[in-house]
Amino acid sequence: MKPAPITRIIRISRNVVELDRSTAFYQDRLGFQATGPAFIMDRALADELGFGARDINVQRLRLGEEEVELVEAGPNARPYPSPNTSADLVFQHLAVRCMDIDTAFKRLYREDSASACPTAISRGSDGGPAPIRLPDGSGGVTAFKFRDPDGHPLELLQPAGDENARSTVRAGVDHTAISVSSAPSSIAFYADSLGLTTSAYQTNSGSEQGLLDALEGPIVDVVSLQTTGKLSPHLELLGYRRPLSLAPHTQAEATDIISDRIVIGCRDVSGLAMNLGMASRLIRSATGELALLFRDPDGHYLLASE
């Protein structure tokens, strides 16, 4: 099977309950900007996702060169499951890259904002919300994990290095991370089916990782996968050896709040559909463009688009 020519991750498409509430959160607390007015999702795609005949409102937001799409699934959508952790296979986060995490953290928790407050995942040794610096052996980054108003996990991420080294850091979406049951199996799927390549592979553990994830004694394989488009966000696989996942993802439906979609650019959507044995599931938009909605081995959704 010839890998599909995946050029880049175009955006992350994320279901929300209230579009205005989520848009305000991402703009006010994280610095995203609207790329244009909200619009109605293409009918063929809405049908494939399972939204039915009603109009689905969508807002696209940009931070730097990267884009996030908020899709108003509505109050009747199945909510984000709780409790859950980053070790569970339902987990998928967005990592927002910043030059100065202390400034970004203060903006995230600004008291003069009318938008919804974030819910902390990461906590310092005193129990309060705080960025965590990982050891050099775990990449040396400083990060803070939290949740948006719908329960979606996000991460502030400051790259390793001193202030001078970080002065060239560009704000934007660094990556999206998904928890997987087997890092080697997922690497094989993304390489063989989609043509992504492994750019980094490390195993993180220790007290700092525990504080970052709010887990006791985690051990996690962290794998970075890159598309051919070097400027696009990359995909990160999180293979937790400890603790083991308690929440399977395979039962989630595309209309559930938890069901993010990784929208990928593909030069040959028809060929990808043939490779995956899904030729009959091709979606043709009102403008004639082809798309394909499918899942990876652990149930995470992807949407290939021309």
From TrEMBL:
It comes from Caballeronia sordidicola (Burkholderia sordidicola). InterPro entries: Glyas_Bleomycin-R_OHBP_Dase, Glyas_Fos-R_dOase_dom, Glyoxalase_1_CS, MMCE/EMCE_epimerase, VOC_core. This is VOC domain-containing protein. PANTHER family: METHYLMALONYL-COA EPIMERASE, METHYLMALONYL-COA EPIMERASE, MITOCHONDRIAL. It holds the Pfam family Glyoxalase. PROSITE patterns: GLYOXALASE_I_1, VOC. GO terms for molecular function: lactoylglutathione lyase activity; metal ion binding; methylmalonyl-CoA epimerase activity. GO terms for biological process: L-methylmalonyl-CoA metabolic process. The keyword Metal-binding applies. Keywords: Metal-binding. The keyword Cell wall biogenesis/degradation does not apply. Residues 8-159, 172-306 form the VOC domain.
